[in-house]
Amino acid sequence: MNSPAPRPSPTLAPDLQLGEPMTDTMHAEFVALLDALACASDETWIGAFDAWTAHTKQHFAQEEAWMEEMNFGPRHCHGSQHRHVLNVAGEVRRQVADEGRFDTGRQLVSELREWFAWHVKSMDALMVEALRARGIAQIDHVDQIV
Asked: Can you give the pTM of this predicted structure?
């Protein structure tokens, strides 16, 4: 009986790593699913988009739960960015599914890459700093990973 080869964990570009394992893993999965979406054919695009959306909803919900737990000051601004991305994504999905607007869908993927890099380096970096300060983060520094 042959078992399938284990799937490698997604990797995250060093400039997007925040040094908190759960956050970095969620971010690597976000990028991997966005990459899969960028490579999807028209026939597989909706399925790839739905996989990215499902992950992203869970990812954002986890961050928002952490921010609520620690009463993080900028949580409302951070969360509003999450809601805006999901609202835009929902509208773009509708346009692709109902009107065949794959050009709009592919434009969203391109713009999400830029937004995500900014979001990680600003909003998520502040959140992880606060998690560390409150002892919620799994580790304190990237160089502590063995």
From this structure: 0.85
Which tens digits make up the pLDDT trace of 38-51?
999 999 999 999 99
Domain count of the chain?
1
Alpha helices in the chain (DSSP H): 21-39, 42-69, 75-99, 102-119, 125-133
Residue 11 counted as domain residue: no
Q: Does residue 140 lie in a domain region?
A: no
* Distance in angstroms (rounded) separating the CA atoms of residues 75 and 34: 25
pLDDT tens digits, residue range 90-132? 999 999 999 999 999 999 999 999 999 999 999 999 999 999 8
The whole domain housing 70 covers: 18-135
Going by the DSSP 8-state scheme, the letter that residue 70 receives in this structure is: T
In a domain, 99, yes or no: yes
